[in-house]
Design a protein that fits this description.
Elements: E1 2-6, H1 18-26, E2 31-38, E3 44-46, H2 67-71, H3 91-97, E4 103-108, H4 120-126, E5 133-137, H5 140-149, E6 155-159, H6 166-171, E7 179-182, H7 189-194, E8 199-202, H8 208-217, E9 221-224
Parallel strand pairs: 1-2, 1-9, 2-4, 4-5, 5-6, 6-7, 7-8, 8-9
Antiparallel strand pairs: 2-3
This protein binds SN-glycerol-3-phosphate and magnesium ion (MG).
């Protein structure tokens, strides 16, 4: 079972920062998950929340800020003074940071009110490493759009507990996702059997007992803030 370092080794360092990915590498991780959003000037940056308050010293919505404005923020101090000065990274900077044998799960986040798609400029950045990545999102419309532009990429459908009828919805998608990434809360043997022809990666598993249970069910992988959980 593969373990994806969720937002890096985010149990040990502020999520989605270089420090967090460095720590994951130190712990031996080769698989990484991180979140990507679009700035007001159409740049791609690594950040989880739509708003800045929780994990930075900024205020307001990320999608209202330019890259230059975001680069001025401190995204480490909220976690601990030890990490003060951590800066938001662009997607390109983070891809260049990883060793060439890393496998990346790039999760695309798009605010409901934001009508912009991750388009050609996004694909240009990720195409050179398309054999060692997976693009996932809760936004299936966005994945469908990207799959039309670039069908030779692995896509992962994120499923949360609030997705009703997801079994028929997944089967009705206009493309076949290579991965299904469900919330741990909806996992049981029935789910595993229904989707046995897919690769299943479960989020977010920070508990050893749960990790061992999922391993026994034969899931492909888990996302964990503790990349050394097993
Ligand atoms: O990609 C798995 C997981 O990261 C999805 O939820 O909110 O942690 O981005 P979230
Ligand atoms: Mg994520």
């Amino acid at each position: 079972m593969i373990i994806f370092a969720h937002r890096g080794a985010s149990a040990f360092a502020p999520e989605n920062t270089k420090a967090s990915f460095k720590k994951a590498l130190d712990l031996g991780a080769k698989h990484f998950e991180f979140d990507v959003q679009i700035t007001s000037d159409n740049k791609y940056v690594v950040f989880h929340d739509y708003t800045l308050e929780r994990t930075s010293n900024g205020k307001g919505k990320l999608s209202d800020k330019t890259l230059l404005e975001l680069k001025k923020l401190d995204i480490g101090s909220w976690y601990s003074e030890e990490f003060s000065g951590e800066q938001i990274m662009t997607l390109k900077e983070l891809i260049e940071f990883f060793p060439s044998d890393s496998f990346l799960n790039i999760e695309l986040k798009r605010d409901k009110n934001d009508k912009r798609f991750f388009g050609e400029s996004f694909l240009e950045i990720i195409r050179p490493i398309k054999d060692r990545l997976l693009i996932s999102s809760f936004d299936w419309e966005l994945l469908t759009y990207l799959n039309n532009l670039e069908p030779n990429i692995s896509f992962g459908i994120l499923v949360d507990k609030y997705c009703t009828n997801f079994i028929s919805d997944i089967k009705d998608l206009p493309f076949i996702p290579y991965f299904i990434n469900p919330n741990f809360k909806i996992i049981d043997e029935n789910f595993i059997n229904t989707f046995k022809e897919y690769n299943i990666i479960v989020y977010t598993v920070n508990d050893l007992e749960k990790a061992l249970y999922l391993k026994s069910l034969g899931v492909f992988g888990i996302f964990s803030n503790y990349p050394n959980i097993l």
